[in-house]
Design brief:
homodimer; 196 residues; mainly alpha; Tetracycline Repressor, domain 2; 10 helices; elongated; DNA-binding
Chain lengths: 196, 196
DNA sequence: GTTTGATGTGAATGCATGTTCACATTACCC
DNA sequence: GGGTAATGTGAACATGCATTCACATCAAAC
């Protein structure tokens, strides 16, 4: 019938947000133009007024995720070890709030889709790792972290604290206690990186 | 035209193997009955002589992966710390040889498909974690590993050593040096778990 | 208020792919 | 060797989904 008209900037945001929610609920595979349109309250063809196609919707979604991840890292400015701890729990919280993130990171839609998308995802993760690496370097300058620690390696391991937990949480439908596990895992990781 | 007839047991194996290869190449999303048939040298409809449908093909693939993973763990009987180290590198090797494994573990076809599949995947990972946990416990009995280490937590962290590396390797099209990274990461992880 | 470009709609189109079915051929059993 | 069940084939069918298009409607510029 009738439907309020909105500026394309607003719609693009709405569409990307709807896509994110749908991905969280049904996975990237279950993401359809029809589903997005329903969520936003539009008709499928209307999506094409704001995006060139499904691929471009996904691109914007990736941008949003990138932003959230990087915001997360840059929010921490306290002493480096504490910064890492907080970052870890923020990351966990972020993933719990929008399950779509691991879904997308692990989605083969990213890997087997347009090569640019794969490159973009790689960029996102590498940027994130770089930021984490910088925190580690700061910790080394502050003499809080071991000098023989490779910041890049530490950053990847840091990611490794989160990823399996996210998967288990997902697979177990929330039964796996991520917070508790992360607490313990952090203790273990911590003593591997702090100065003796 | 004409095509040699083979027992369904043989075909099922061939089909599952072909599926695994295709997944490695094009991702779970790119797995099609037509693709499998081509690879095996059959016509698409012939697949249905041996499987009830695509889902059942995936089920068998999952079984194969489960087997490979568990074989991997149970192959190690040496002293526990060394066993963990070897297991780690075996795991890396396994993933490099059949990229399909991480593809499947991360695939949303598993998460948003039939719920049984999700449960099966969960079972596979949990069984694997349990086996790793047992090695850790053995290490604790041998006084090689810290007594205050939670074996379950250690097992998940162990998985965390492999997963991000696998993803990075994949995203970077093999440019990321998994072996080198794993060497270093193992050193870090090691000093977090061995007895002081 | 009229014009005009932007946004929304409904129907139609096209494509990829899983699945079924009637029929052909082969392997195996007696 | 003849019969029979298993295996293979080609074509047709079904479906879900992205995408397009002609037309309708609204909002903002003038």
């Amino acid at each position: 019938m009738k439907n309020e008209k909105m500026k394309t900037e607003v719609r693009r945001e709405q569409i990307a947000t709807a896509a994110l929610q749908l991905i969280a609920r049904r996975g990237v595979r279950g993401l359809s133009i029809a589903g997005i349109a329903r969520q936003v309250g539009l008709v499928p063809s209307a999506i094409y007024r704001h995006f060139d196609g499904k691929d471009h919707v996904l691109d914007l979604v990736l941008d949003q995720i990138r932003q959230r991840l990087l915001d997360n890292v840059q929010a921490e400015t306290s002493d480096s070890v504490e910064a890492l701890r907080r970052l870890l729990f923020r990351h966990i919280k972020l993933i719990r709030e929008s399950e779509a993130i691991p879904m997308l990171v692990f989605s083969d839609q990213v890997y087997s889709g347009r090569p640019e998308r794969k490159a973009r995802m790689q960029r996102i993760i590498q940027d994130y790792l770089e930021q984490v690496g910088k925190v580690v370097q700061r910790g080394q300058k502050e003499k809080a972290l071991r000098a023989d620690l490779d910041p890049a390696v530490a950053a990847v391991m840091f990611l490794g604290l989160v990823q399996p937990a996210a998967i288990l949480w997902h697979l177990s439908e929330g039964a796996f206690d991520v917070t508790k596990h992360t607490e313990k895992a952090w203790q273990v990781f911590r003593r591997a990186i702090v100065r003796p």
